[in-house]
Amino acid sequence: MKSQYIINLSRITLVFIMLFLFPISAYSELSVEEIIKGRQAIFSKNYKTAKRVQALSSKGDFDKAKNLMLEMSENYKSLIKYFPDNTKEGFGTEALPSIWENKDEFNNLMTKASNNMIKLSEVIDQTDNVQGAIKSLMWSNCKACHSKFREEH
Ligand code: HEC
To answer: CA-CA to 76 of 20 to 30 Å: which in 1, 29, 107, 108?
Structure first.
């Protein structure tokens, strides 16, 4: 009876360990190419979305603009995982080595860009300077990061 109980318990434990490990191993199975192309696709999408945010806000269509701001915020958060050590070069990456030499600073800029999009969604319909808010809370973050962490293109 007792040994049966222990076997069941260790089976359950094993299942939990596997459930815990699975997302990590599934992620690490992405190839270097998939990770680099994946992050480039997210940046490209954010660029398109940023232009729509600008256009919608300029028209005063704040509800639609806010949804897109929050989408960009999430994208920035997910981008933090797209810079593992084995993706420093290849596949046309424009990422500079300075990213991995200053990982905390890079991640902080990404988090700041994400938080600023949330802040932008909160102030956009409250401010009398829509363009100024978009510039300081959205576009300035692109530049701050690219000037140090992305190759000239
Ligand atoms: C915290 C850093 C950071 C922020 C913030 C950031 N970027 Fe980037 N961006 C990068 C890096 C690094 C790359 C290079 C990625 C690669 O090639 O592997 C990049 C690449 C790009 C690319 C090229 C993607 C491709 O297809 O190769 C575009 C477009 C882009 N960013 C637009 C933007 C825009 C627009 C913003 C702001 C709304 C922004 N980025 C904010 C770091 C950042």
So the answer is: 29
- List the CATH code of the domain at 31-149: 1.20.120.10
Task: Please give the number of the atom of ligand 1 that sits closest to the Cα of 149.
Answer: 12
Stated as kind and residue range, the H or E segment containing 57 is helix 32-59
77 lines ligand 1 (CB under 6 A): no
Residue closest to 75 by CA, chosen among 45, 112, 109, 30: 45
What string of pLDDT tens digits covers the 153 residues of the chain? 567 777 777 777 777 777 776 655 555 578 999 999 999 999 999 999 999 999 999 999 999 999 999 999 999 999 999 999 999 999 999 999 999 999 999 999 999 999 999 999 999 999 999 999 999 999 999 999 999 999 988
Query: Where are the domains positioned within the chain?
Result: 1-30, 31-149
* Distance of CA 142 from the midpoint of ligand 1 (Å): 7
